[in-house]
Amino acid sequence: MSDEIRLDFQRPERIGFDEAILCARKSDAQLAVIMERVLERDGRSLLTRLEPEVFARIAPNYLEKLDYDPVSRTAYLNWAPPLDTGSAQIAVVSAGSSDMPQAAEAIRTLAYLGAPAKQFIDIGVAGLWRLLERVEELNTFPVIIAVAGMDGALPSVLGGLVPGVIICLPTSTGYGVSNGGETALHAALASCAPGLAVVNIDNGYGAACAAFRALNMIRRARTARD
Amino acid sequence: MSDEIRLDFQRPERIGFDEAILCARKSDAQLAVIMERVLERDGRSLLTRLEPEVFARIAPNYLEKLDYDPVSRTAYLNWAPPLDTGSAQIAVVSAGSSDMPQAAEAIRTLAYLGAPAKQFIDIGVAGLWRLLERVEELNTFPVIIAVAGMDGALPSVLGGLVPGVIICLPTSTGYGVSNGGETALHAALASCAPGLAVVNIDNGYGAACAAFRALNMIRRARTARD
Amino acid sequence: MSDEIRLDFQRPERIGFDEAILCARKSDAQLAVIMERVLERDGRSLLTRLEPEVFARIAPNYLEKLDYDPVSRTAYLNWAPPLDTGSAQIAVVSAGSSDMPQAAEAIRTLAYLGAPAKQFIDIGVAGLWRLLERVEELNTFPVIIAVAGMDGALPSVLGGLVPGVIICLPTSTGYGVSNGGETALHAALASCAPGLAVVNIDNGYGAACAAFRALNMIRRARTARD
Amino acid sequence: MSDEIRLDFQRPERIGFDEAILCARKSDAQLAVIMERVLERDGRSLLTRLEPEVFARIAPNYLEKLDYDPVSRTAYLNWAPPLDTGSAQIAVVSAGSSDMPQAAEAIRTLAYLGAPAKQFIDIGVAGLWRLLERVEELNTFPVIIAVAGMDGALPSVLGGLVPGVIICLPTSTGYGVSNGGETALHAALASCAPGLAVVNIDNGYGAACAAFRALNMIRRARTARD
Amino acid sequence: MSDEIRLDFQRPERIGFDEAILCARKSDAQLAVIMERVLERDGRSLLTRLEPEVFARIAPNYLEKLDYDPVSRTAYLNWAPPLDTGSAQIAVVSAGSSDMPQAAEAIRTLAYLGAPAKQFIDIGVAGLWRLLERVEELNTFPVIIAVAGMDGALPSVLGGLVPGVIICLPTSTGYGVSNGGETALHAALASCAPGLAVVNIDNGYGAACAAFRALNMIRRARTARD
Amino acid sequence: MSDEIRLDFQRPERIGFDEAILCARKSDAQLAVIMERVLERDGRSLLTRLEPEVFARIAPNYLEKLDYDPVSRTAYLNWAPPLDTGSAQIAVVSAGSSDMPQAAEAIRTLAYLGAPAKQFIDIGVAGLWRLLERVEELNTFPVIIAVAGMDGALPSVLGGLVPGVIICLPTSTGYGVSNGGETALHAALASCAPGLAVVNIDNGYGAACAAFRALNMIRRARTARD
Amino acid sequence: MSDEIRLDFQRPERIGFDEAILCARKSDAQLAVIMERVLERDGRSLLTRLEPEVFARIAPNYLEKLDYDPVSRTAYLNWAPPLDTGSAQIAVVSAGSSDMPQAAEAIRTLAYLGAPAKQFIDIGVAGLWRLLERVEELNTFPVIIAVAGMDGALPSVLGGLVPGVIICLPTSTGYGVSNGGETALHAALASCAPGLAVVNIDNGYGAACAAFRALNMIRRARTARD
Amino acid sequence: MSDEIRLDFQRPERIGFDEAILCARKSDAQLAVIMERVLERDGRSLLTRLEPEVFARIAPNYLEKLDYDPVSRTAYLNWAPPLDTGSAQIAVVSAGSSDMPQAAEAIRTLAYLGAPAKQFIDIGVAGLWRLLERVEELNTFPVIIAVAGMDGALPSVLGGLVPGVIICLPTSTGYGVSNGGETALHAALASCAPGLAVVNIDNGYGAACAAFRALNMIRRARTARD
């Protein structure tokens, strides 16, 4: 089967970052082939949606090559992100500990891409003071990822308070009419606060990529000054 | 056809308020029969969803008997609510002028029932200061009707700030994924703020009745003190 | 991770009751941190959606501090509700034993909040006599929680018979077009009986909070008399 | 175009009643061809969903042949139902005047088929006494069509009270989560009362045909006794 | 808890058949209480949705009292249906072996109620000849239950061929746009064949009850002849 | 604005047929620019979804260039299909006159493409004999377009009877759970008859293109023989 | 139970290929009966949706008769497809390894039917060059099956590039708004590229049958030339 | 009523741009009050969803103050955007003339905000060459708004080709399963191309605001360099 896989190694040159490997629905054998392809070029890769039990099965063969985090279900293949040498440019804001996995997926992806993020949690609108006392600090971030499940009210409140790019990451937290994240998604899309941009439910990886696209353009503008 | 209609005149004795007449989908002839039934007993009634063009057709026959308001599309039949003699116990809070018809339906219904309400508008979460500077006053109301369309974030914010009964009235304002009010409805039901109670989309009449049930029980408690 | 959690301890002062801990989707480690935070202040808390298997794992460390009920999947942390010293002001009405968990969640929440409830079961509309013979008693309750799954017809019938506040708690009981509680939810929202207020599917905790908001306002009115 | 239409004239021999003509979405020219086909055989037919404005356009050519009723939007072509010579075997029960068009479509269809029906209106569950005082009479009908929109609670209550065949006819009456009749449809299908059978939303014609199938089998049983 | 259960023992007198026990979502303890209630009156009952593993747990205590069938997941409590002494009046028609459980639930329910049914399988429309060669026989049944999943085309074809009462039982067989039975349900409701009556998805019990209501009325007509 | 439009004139070389002009949602000015572009190259084009009132407005400027058909709402621009010189290879089968516009759109598109079709109407499954007596003839067509609304049972029956390519064209005919064609669409997709291929609701143009792709490959095979 | 099964052995004569056995939802006993029926005629059959654990249970009895493939979950009963003796006429194109099971089901079905297919993988539109460099080769196939999940953009791009019959096979790959394949299905149906034909989500078997119908007609045309 | 409106004049200081006026669902009187409020401060404003017929009614009173564009249905109140003095930083890419109104709303909003955009049309994926020949130019834009209806394949293709911020603007163009833009929305959210950010269906104003937030941060980075 190893003939079957043709990875898109030219992607970074085209769009600024490389293809991640979505592990969901791939067999162990398929994952092994893909990782071999990466390693034989001494490349690096980010694995997402890597369930702990799948990791446990494939890990023995890649012990020194995989840096796995069970909360975000991500792994770095043949890669150790550099220590954070500058200040974070991206904030990841969430309401509570239920949305931790999705927020962690975004943060781990950003670290992989070389864009360390600062996390703000317990910023739920039901206890508004926790958000208000952080507004000044949030104003300094050019890009914010707003993670929210259930009613998804956080992005709307945030959108009226800060000027930066806001990437909404709706989560499947909740039950009943939360509809697996649909209500949070729709609330972000239909927000009364202008200029919110939204990614798919539970798509922490995608939120990070969207934030990284913005950061890349900001960096390009900074670089262009010289 | 006049034999066909049997109104539920005993309802006030059972539940504390009388049957309203939902005019939508009723023919002019049907409306005439119903109004005649009320008038021949010298009763009173509230008509809801009475479109201006329908009112224009039936009004000539009931000029002195109907007090019509085109914004809320309601009419009082054979009834003039007493002038407000006490302070309002119910607040009706909304984000903007787009939700005016639904808020007005609730306010007109409450006036008909003898429960004058105070209206707060432009309390949208995208301009949070407009809500925050009113919180102290809102705390004094035992019952609040929160009107919100689009993302429906207002009830969630309000629910974390005030202790009274909160009746959420989602509206069909908006487009796209607002889905005719479904997103605002779901956001209120899935709210992270505890203890919100919700009525059907655009159901200003129902929100008023739910608020009135609460007010009735509060009044009963007050009366019982003597 | 213990830095990450900032609980909203000021909530009771704002809205009259404290934040509950929704255990669903939280890891054991997250739950432990939250409970420690509560205990180190000698606070109390209500845990909801605490599955028996999760309880079994965390219980050994909190044996004397947790009062767990498997039917409602709730636990009281560092709290024993006072024995019921007065008459119940809130009725919890349901059709049958299938809706027991949701009704129990509401009742346990109310007990935690200091508002003992009286339960009425087997009040299904398919055997209407069971409801009719209780109407007189139900009339004495200022607040009723109506629990219903499947077709959700109970709230509509009840709403035409009693004057109190009615909080509808739709449940996910049923199959096929019951759609996980959506039909019961929609039937309550679209009810022909006026003034019903509704909470999310299976949200026994939220129904209790909504009922408690109303009870609080009634109590405030009673207290104000002196 | 007249070649294009081949009517199913053998249907009565197969299933006991003839093909009706659903006028919705047919052009005037198509309707004319179909009616000509019927008349040239001196046949009869039932036209459904014939909007008043369409009737006004085609009526001049068929003045003596069409018996039109604007409430039900039905017409009898070349047919006058016999005067009711026996007692009605089918009851058509509905909650209020908003559901009149659908109830009327069922009643007119039954009259066309030779099965006169008795209509009961204002049997809404929000005023339960109106239903309860009719139960004894309803028990005598072998077949009942229960017409209900909005929350659709009527069939559930009825199903627990009477033994006959119950055909539920959900209607699109209502707004918001009524969803054009979907909630009433789902409530009837998910009913806690056993043995309800349901037809499509607003399908008064289909409800009548289902009732007529049952009546036909009952008549066959009666005839077989002799 | 035994106080909590009040069964509706008067139901047969009102509607002609007794309350079944839907076992889904009931705890073993709840089932035990209900069965005790039935047995202490020497009553009988039908249990539906009794999963094999639940049966295995409760069976030891009721070995001689329960007649269990794993295909239909039904059990007769304290009851053995009489041997079939007459000819079947109800046909149960289905397309294939995938719909067997639902068909079996209907057949077992009918047997319990004293109305033996005849089963026709492999009557799928993709092999039309299997249906056509049975039409003559099917014409002799006053009541037919048509079981169909996936596209649900069987009821439409049947409805154009036979005159009896047709109860459509849509099943959750299929995948993708079958949507857990929704497509079969909607196809039956929107059928071009007139007079089909429909029950909830997978509701074999309900289909049997609807068929039994019709049979009861036919029997009443037969009895009335003497 | 004329600069703005760049038509895809190379499409026939790539895929075998040219771009049609979907007139819905285009302004009169936009349509004029597009037509001019076609005419200045002396090209030809097919216009679809051209409403009669739009045609009436633009027709005066293109009287000799447009061949308009109001039933299918299509127009040929600068093109007259050749008279049918051979036998039709594609059959268009539909149940009744309600689906005529969609069937006509397919037939007109095929004529434009040079693939005359034969139409079969009144092939509804509720009168099965009308289909059965045509099966032998239908067997001779290599490609069949099956047009069906409401329950969409026709394709399933057809799929079990004939061997050719079957393109299902679901239509929005019907009401209630027909859901604007969704039920017919889903029934075709979930059909128990194997090998049906489906296009979007009311997409007569797309059905014709799909049929034409198949016909093109068949013709290529025929041509290749020499 | 063996009497119950009547297979449609005449299907190949009618439509060109035989009935497959959908194993999902069939009990082991039912599968055994069906296989016996096939074997006692020395027939052959294709089993689909045969889960590995079901295969493991039934395999011991049919070791030499079943050729099972776990990726596609298909088995050949009493049949070994001939070695591929000619060039493939059908291409199966997919974006990546996540859609492998559905692509494999199509390919195994085609092999069973005697129509070997060539597979193209990693043809995702996010790395467009992988598709573009294959276009010339894809142009030579008269029939293409386009497998796509998530956003389902592949068929639209392909449809503008190649002239052959395109059968779209949407898959349930993805999460959130992918909605179990619904988005890929709808994108294929609503495609801006004309003449795409679509089958049910994950229906690799159906896609193969639709492709085979087209191939059969092409072969018939080729044969007719001589 | 003029007391009722409190505009959020401080918004630009908080988030970088001012509140627009959504005219849909506002009465003429409400619009007049809002415009007066703006003018009495000599402010400026953007009006969106201003239908031509509403504009025609209110225009006479504000002839010199309103700059109206009927395609985008927007008006500038008391404002004339400066002539474009620099090169455009934002590209607006769309497939065809059907999406013109939404693209125009975005472009007009950007012009109002002082961020001129360059428009690329006819970039549909069904004629891929039109996109490919523009890729190099598109690479120079830091922000791209991708407008797409129907299957919404354009953003996925674009996302694999260019590195900038991509804001997807799904449109309600299309019919059938296009579902008023839902399919285009879902396709953008579920895209296989990473880092796409999405706004509500037809929300050209919101897409512009999201693009402007990114541009603002890029400008801030440029400014910071000096």
From TrEMBL, chains A, B, C, D, E, F, G, H:
Pfam families on file: AIRC
Residue intervals of the PurE domain: 88-220
SMART domains: AIRC
Tree of life domain: Bacteria
Coiled-coil region list: none
Swiss-Prot/TrEMBL GO biological process terms: 'de novo' IMP biosynthetic process
GO molecular function, one term: hydrolase activity
PANTHER family per the UniProt record, alphabetical: PHOSPHORIBOSYLAMINOIMIDAZOLE CARBOXYLASE-RELATED, SLL1489 PROTEIN
Protein name per its UniProtKB record: Nickel pincer cofactor biosynthesis protein LarB
Organism: Sinorhizobium terangae
Top-level taxonomy: Bacteria, Pseudomonadati, Pseudomonadota, Alphaproteobacteria, Hyphomicrobiales
